[in-house]
Predict the 3D structure of the following.
Amino acid sequence: MIYRGCQFPEHLYYDVERDVWVRFEGEIAVLGMTDVAQTRCGKLAAINFRPVGKKVSQGKPLATIESAKWVGPFPAPFSCEIVETNEAGFAEDILLANKDPYATGWLVKVRPLDLDGEGSHLVTGEEAFHKYKQKIEALKINCFRCVG
């Protein structure tokens, strides 16, 4: 689904408030920034990842993202333990999340610690698309991707 250039793959879950997408792979969750988030940030300049093995509470940073116009956290959508980061991918191409936020631009893989207790806010499909349409309208966003 696409709205004003912003893409929302239907198979993913979204934490709309934190602009994080989630793809579950068994007991592991792959997390990344949404198309809206990468557009609002602009071209990424650096990412500082928390270490593998670190347990992070819901809402706390899994990484710190820097761009030309913004520095801020990449927040955990639920309490989790970091099992892998995409640090090597971003070392090769810092614009991965700007070019392909839902595939090669993933940020971290985590093991959820209390998904039953903290995952009820995650939305998917039409519900996610409807919530993002409202957010896009309110913030007057038109998504774009970096190509180089």
